[in-house]
Specification:
Length: about 120
């Protein structure tokens, strides 16, 4: 009871856009970031044909990379599996396909090797 009101505990709480759980394991936050980045990629795919290559590159970098970098100091010392989820190869592949305009199942290995061409701002 706080101020006459019953307070019930929650599994996670958001503060400045970061989801924190009771153990500070950051798995809830990582899941939310990965989910929202794939959502952004799906939304951008619907307008990709309307944008030039350089515009797609800037938009992908601003939506995807900036969110992955947000509050990354809080991720210091978290489990390796959570870091790998943020560095998910499939997210990089999907972003590269979106920028270049490739299909969902096209190979992007060479694009990722030449990442400076497509992903430098």
């Amino acid at each position: 009871m706080v101020g006459g009101q019953a307070v019930t505990p929650v599994k996670s709480a958001r503060n400045l856009g970061v989801l924190l759980d009771a153990e500070l394991a950051m798995d809830v936050h990582v899941s939310a970031v990965v989910k929202s980045r794939f959502y952004q990629l799906r939304q951008l795919r619907s307008v990709q044909r309307s944008l030039r290559l350089d515009a797609r590159r800037v938009i992908v970098m601003s939506f995807i990379a900036s969110r992955l970098d947000y509050c990354n100091a809080l991720l210091y010392g978290i489990a390796k599996t959570e870091i790998q989820r943020l560095q998910l190869q499939t997210m990089m592949n999907a972003a590269a396909r979106l920028v270049v305009g490739l299909g969902r199942y096209d190979h992007v290995t060479q694009l990722l090797c030449d990442a400076q061409i497509y992903f430098t701002v």
